[in-house]
Amino acid sequence: MKRILLTVEYDGTNYAGWQRQINGLAVQQVLEEALRKATGERIVVTGASRTDAGVHALGQAVHFDTESSIPPEKYPFVLNTMLPRDVRVLTGREVPADFHARFMTCGKQYTYRIINTRHGSAIRRNTHVHVPVPLDLAPMQRAAQTLLGKHDFAAFQASGGTAKTTVRTIHRAELTRLGDEIILTVEGDAFLYNMVRIIAGTLIEIGHHRRGEDAFTRAITSLNRLDLGVTAPPQGLELTRVDYPEAAFTLPDAIRWHED
User: Fold this and answer.
1) One of 52, 152, 180, 189 is an active-site residue; which one?
2) Each residue of 50-63: pLDDT tens digit?
3) What are phi and psi of 66, to 5 degrees?
4) Is 260 a known active-site residue?
């Protein structure tokens, strides 16, 4: 039995999120079905992040156990012939038997993309959120910087969140303008349910001068969700990268020697 780690990219437009659903097709389901065809085994995959319906991923991390003889690095070639075109496996590697894609993460990067033009985009409608009124970027950038550091982000989660603690550390929160796009990049040790979308929705209100640039500071102090803006739409959000400590990939000597 081997544990395999995959990096998976997907366009979440046609899916009810990452996690298997009773009432909709999920990315997890299509990946498990492809693995069953490839290995002949009933495989359950575990993802690093349970992205919502319509949310995309450039670097979702997924692990599973298998007795298949398929070399780990060949899984992208095998699975991509069976997966729909909006789901792609980018890398595959063997990891220790106790590796866990969700619980061993040490950081994640999310990206939120906004088109800030009078008229929306036909091509980018599924990967960006359209904001037709001009946004004032400077106060948005200043507000984003107040997120940095270790705080109790209880106000930054939507109802339904199940985190045992709401304390998180944000290492990076930046907004840049590239042509008609405004791009939010957030990096942290972990994130709460809908946290990045709540940050994005609040920043949009700040950019419209409907909310002060001290909104995040107020919410961190009050722990009150009402001190923040609306939850931004899902299609602008992308799970860009998942990070792990290097020790998480340390294999027993015999397996490491075999890989060499």
Assistant:
1) 52
2) 999 999 999 999 99
3) -155, 155
4) no
Phi then psi for 63, rounded to 5 degrees? -120, 155
37: left (phi over 0), alpha (psi -120 to 50) or beta: alpha
Residue 256 confidence (pLDDT): 42
Positive or negative, the CA dihedral 253, 254, 255, 257 is positive
Pick the closest to residue 115 from 103, 97, 127, 104 (CA basis): 127
Q: Which one-letter DSSP state was computed for residue 19?
A: S
User: What confidence tens digit (pLDDT) does each residue in 141-163 have?
Assistant: 999 999 999 999 999 999 877 78
Matching residue, tokens 């990967």 = 127
List of E strands, the chain: 2-10, 46-47, 56-66, 87-95, 107-115, 129-130, 149-152, 167-178, 181-188, 237-243
